[in-house]
């Protein structure tokens, strides 16, 4: 099968031929229909040992081809979306990829794996494939949920405490995939105020329908604007989906001096400038697959079962319309477009959308 390797210095991608992987005892093998890029896909190779090149894809939707010996809730032919463990073999930039069952969920009937419609161009009619939103969900939603529930300690939707009104919530980077999914999760709870810091992605953030106050970071007055939005209310929870240093300094300036929590998503960064009275929640999605948080030597075994429960609920929430995928742009040439997509992410040219790829669009691929 075809698989894509991501290399760094400079950023480049290479399509290679590899054997179709076999699922482990608690894994499924998925025929990948769509895969999606995340910023970590170009960042991770920059921090690897030179020469250690792997398939960096972690997010997909497709059809189960085979199941491991201990798998009892999925079967061949199931339509699914899944997150693949980061920095491991058999990633999602490929014709087939593996995923643990705890980060795989069934796509409900109202979420198509792929639809079709006819378009007319110069009097000719063409059948065009329409991607589903499924591949935009698993990795980003799981990361956001870890930060939201496991690190910030926001009551989970099934908890009796979820009915309690929480103090204001600030999400820095509301149009990013992690920020947007954090907002969608906030919609399942209750807060006195939900404040989003964003820029050109405001229209999408507004469409989520949960933000009460907006702060435009481009005006250069974030701290004062946050204080104005809070209007004297104490803020104990903040999501920093940007993690650029400036962002968490802005949040530190408005969080309460006692009992505050902030979720961050790049464990390798130096957060020593954050005062000790603020509890930092380093969020590393690898913990849902039993991996320790790098640089923090922190292993969160409870995250494995948390992800299992979350992904079962995701199917239900999608079916009920309580949650939805992220806006996306389909790049045209399948795996051959991944390098271009990662470069766009690296250059900061992607806002309020995910870049996705249809494997069958890969030139020269005999895909059935």
Short description:
With 368 residues, the protein is of the alpha/beta class. Helix content is 21%, strand content 26%.
Can you characterise this structure?
It is built from eight helices and 17 strands. It has 368 residues and is an alpha/beta fold. It has two domains: 150 residues, Quinone Oxidoreductase, Chain A, domain 1; 148 residues, NAD(P)-binding Rossmann-like Domain (Rossmann fold, 3-Layer(aba) Sandwich). Strands 3, 4, 5, 6, 7, 16 and 17 form a seven-stranded mixed sheet that branches. It has a six-stranded parallel sheet with strand order 12-11-10-13-14-15, with helices on both faces. Strands 1-2 form a two-stranded antiparallel sheet. β8 and β9 form a beta hairpin. α2 crosses α7. About 2% of the residues have low confidence. This is Alcohol dehydrogenase. One of its GO terms (molecular function) is oxidoreductase activity, acting on NAD(P)H. Keywords: Oxidoreductase. Belongs to the zinc-containing alcohol dehydrogenase family.
């Amino acid at each position: 099968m075809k698989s894509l390797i991501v290399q760094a210095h400079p950023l480049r991608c290479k399509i290679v031929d590899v054997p179709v992987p076999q699922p482990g005892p608690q894994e499924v093998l998925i025929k990948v229909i769509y895969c999606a890029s995340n910023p970590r896909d170009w960042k991770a190779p920059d921090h690897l040992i030179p020469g250690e090149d792997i398939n960096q894809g972690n997010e997909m939707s497709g059809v189960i081809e085979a199941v491991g010996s201990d798998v009892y809730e999925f079967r061949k032919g199931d339509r699914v979306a899944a997150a693949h463990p980061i920095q491991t073999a058999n990633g999602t930039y490929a014709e087939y990829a593996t995923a643990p069952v705890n980060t795989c969920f069934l796509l409900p009937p109202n979420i198509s794996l792929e639809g079709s419609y006819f378009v007319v161009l110069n009097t000719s009619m063409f059948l065009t494939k329409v991607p589903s939103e499924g591949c935009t969900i698993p990795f980003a939603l799981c990361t956001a949920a870890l930060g939201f529930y496991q690190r910030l300690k926001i009551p989970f939707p099934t908890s009796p405490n979820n009915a309690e009104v929480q103090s204001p919530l600030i999400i820095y980077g509301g149009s990013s995939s992690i920020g947007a999914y954090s907002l969608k999760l906030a919609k399942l709870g209750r807060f006195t105020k939900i404040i989003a810091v964003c820029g050109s992605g405001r229209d999408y953030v507004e469409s989520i329908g949960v933000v009460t106050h907006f702060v435009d970071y481009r005006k250069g007055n974030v701290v004062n604007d946050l204080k104005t939005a809070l209007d004297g209310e104490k803020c104990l929870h903040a999501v920093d989906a940007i993690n650029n240093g400036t962002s968490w300094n802005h949040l530190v300036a408005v969080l309460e001096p006692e009992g505050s929590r902030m979720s961050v998503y790049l464990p390798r960064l130096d957060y020593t400038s954050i005062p000790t009275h603020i509890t930092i929640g380093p969020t590393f999605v690898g913990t849902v697959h039993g991996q320790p948080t790098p640089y923090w030597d922190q292993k969160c075994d409870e995250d494995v079962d948390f992800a299992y429960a979350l992904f079962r609920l995701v199917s239900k929430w999608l079916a009920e319309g309580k949650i939805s995928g992220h806006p996306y742009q389909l790049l045209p040439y399948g795996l051959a477009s991944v390098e271009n997509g990662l470069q766009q992410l690296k250059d900061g040219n992607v806002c309020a959308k995910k870049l996705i790829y249809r494997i069958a669009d890969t030139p020269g691929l005999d895909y059935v």
